[in-house]
Design a protein that fits this description.
By secondary structure, this protein is mostly helical. About 65% of the residues lie in helices and about 0% in strands. The protein contains 9 helices and no strands. Helix 6 runs antiparallel to helix 7. The model has no long low-confidence stretch (mean pLDDT about 85).
Length: about 290
């Protein structure tokens, strides 16, 4: 495909990524709170209590039930409703100088960072794969991994509402051998889950402590479903190396105690994106060194 056409496709994907990145900020902020509401409702149901309809006084919007669509976004400090002009990806943050237009409280720089990362990775995926089914799947995978990374970093949770559909979507894409043949994808999903499940139980039997959460098993299973079992060694190696380096660095800098848990999901997600683009090349290089 001509370079100019690829450039135009990448630009369109980048603009789409900006808009999706803005939505991902909503997902990252609201989904853990929605999960917490659901847990409270389930506990109330088990106790035989009626579901609560009282407004949530911890948040300015005061919604009894929170969803990804309602209520509209508001400033967490003063409750000012965000207008359409104040919600333009990156540009609004720059024009507002990173502050709420009503109360002048700082807006977290994470919002434009998530939007920028989503746009850049989306543009690169379109340029890397071209106008193919691989590019469409790569966008879905990247967007899901970005959301999971930020949610896990904040809460040490990897929501089933993202990881499980991600696994099945990966298998659907590989019905057409998009990234791997279907048997490799199914084996990848099984091995991905069982690998970290085994590490979890070996560590727990040896130390009496839980070294990771069940969400990590499901995320690696999803990556195996997308990329095939052949990519799992690359994903596990990259995520382990990066996780170890970052963890040691945090301990040395005294930002984390030795017993403070560090989420593993972001490293799995980063390794999955690297494997998506360069996994085959890395595997060939590794096998060449071993030979």
């Amino acid at each position: 495909m001509p370079f100019e056409s690829l450039g135009g496709l990448a630009a369109v994907a980048g603009l789409l990524g900006l808009c999706v990145g803005s939505f991902l900020n909503v997902v990252i902020h609201r989904l853990p709170k929605m999960m917490e509401q659901e847990w409270h409702a389930q506990c109330a149901d088990l106790r035989g209590e009626p579901p609560s309809t009282a407004p949530d006084t911890k948040h300015p919007w005061g919604a009894a039930t929170l969803s990804l669509a309602k209520p509209r976004s508001r400033c967490p400090s003063c409750g000012h409703q965000i207008t359409a002009l104040e919600n333009i990806p990156i540009l609004s943050y720059l024009l507002l100088r990173g502050k709420c237009s009503n109360c002048a409280m700082p807006i977290s720089p994470r919002y434009p960072v998530i939007e920028a990362i989503t746009a850049l990775l989306s543009a690169y995926a379109a340029w890397h794969f071209g106008p193919t089914l691989q590019a469409a799947g790569a966008l879905i995978l990247i967007w899901a991994l970005i959301a999971l990374t930020a949610i896990d970093y904040d809460t040490q949770l990897l929501p089933d509402s993202i990881t499980l559909p991600l696994l099945w979507i990966g298998l659907v894409f590989n019905l057409a051998n998009t990234y791997a043949d279907l048997p490799s994808a199914v084996i990848g999903a099984m091995l991905g889950y069982l690998t970290l499940w085994s590490v979890f139980w070996l560590f727990k039997l040896a130390t009496g402590k839980e070294g990771m959460g069940y969400g990590d098993f499901k995320l690696l299973a999803a990556l195996g479903a997308w990329l095939g079992w052949q990519m799992l060694p690359v994903v596990i190696l990259l995520s382990s190396v990066v996780g170890a380096v970052v963890g040691i660095g945090l301990i040395v800098l005294s930002r984390h105690g030795r017993n403070t848990p560090i989420p593993f999901g972001p490293y799995l997600a980063a390794a999955g994106i690297i494997a998506l683009f360069w996994g085959a090349h890395l595997t060939r290089s590794y096998l060449g060194l071993m030979a």
